[in-house]
Design a protein that fits this description.
The protein has 179 residues and is an alpha/beta fold. It has two domains: 10-49; 78-178. The protein is 12% helix and 27% strand. The chain has helices spanning 10-15, 27-42, and strands spanning 78-83, 87-88, 96-101, 105-108, 118-125, 133-135, 139-140, 156-165, 168-171, 175-178. β8 and β9 (168-171) form a beta hairpin. The radius of gyration is 32 Å and the shape is rod-shaped. It starts with 9 loop residues before the first helix and ends with a strand.
């Protein structure tokens, strides 16, 4: 960005006596002045850039490079779905998942997780129950024990997770049989 800097001292020209040839404004001086004005205008903030090349000011928007103090409750986006086939969770869109199991199935390895991301997966048995979940290779469990869920009809289990590396989603021990 360039600030406008006057190139011709018009006040000094005004102070010259009438008839002094230096009092006359030349075309080259006008060109120089208008060139400086044009450069300053062309390189200054353009409001059409707001929100695209310049971050818009919004007091309600958190900055990602600043510590935050929250004045209202915060929650990650949550997918709520009934699933009956092998499923790939979309970690790029959702942080949390509430899944009602309509069949035994596999959670396939996703490609959208981000290191440091964390959240929870709620598994709810349908009215039939007995549904099991097997895991794709990116999901890691304690002692590689897999995921054992409650199987009673309508049972609800909560499984916390954290992404510790690309292709590695650590699943915590299920908190079982919420009622």
């Amino acid at each position: 960005m360039s600030d406008y800097t006057k190139t011709t001292n018009f006040t000094a020209k005004d102070a010259l006596a009438s008839g002094n040839p230096n009092k006359v404004i030349k075309g080259s001086e006008f060109d120089l002045e208008f060139g400086a004005v044009a450069t300053a205008i062309a390189t200054k903030f353009d409001s059409t850039d707001l929100g695209s090349t310049v971050q818009a000011y919004d007091a309600d928007t958190a900055k990602t490079d600043e510590a935050q103090t929250w004045s209202a409750a915060q929650q990650g986006s949550t997918q709520t779905a009934s699933i009956s086939t092998d499923t790939t969770l979309d970690f790029g869109t959702y942080q949390n998942f509430v899944l009602t199991l309509g069949a035994s199935l596999s959670l396939l390895s996703p490609t959208t997780e981000v290191v440091g991301q964390s959240g929870f997966i709620v598994f709810a048995q349908d009215a039939t129950g007995g549904r099991t979940v097997s895991l794709g290779s990116e999901y890691k469990t304690t002692n590689a024990s897999g995921l054992t869920l409650s199987t009673a009809a309508n049972a609800v289990d909560v499984v916390p997770y954290i992404v510790n590396a690309s292709g590695s989603i650590l699943l915590g021990n299920p908190q079982k049989a919420f009622a």
